[in-house]
What does this fold into?
Amino acid sequence: MAQDWSLRGAVRPAITGGLVNITVVVDGNEILEDVNVAVPVALHLAAQVCGNSIGVIAQDLRADGTCTNTSTGDTFQIDQR
It folds into this structure.
């Protein structure tokens, strides 16, 4: 039986297109600071840094603009300017 990945009826985060600024801290070192990227790129990078799915990351970022990988302590921050 095939999986339905359409998310029908699910509440989706209201993240729009455009550019956002990101900051990434890995092992206590800031490797990116105030870099402008497209929203989809930011979400994919945040998912990699924070070790979670894009849907979870989008909701986490929407709450306060940051996510933290609970295993490594790596952080990702996003803001739209």
Summary: The chain has a mean pLDDT of 77.
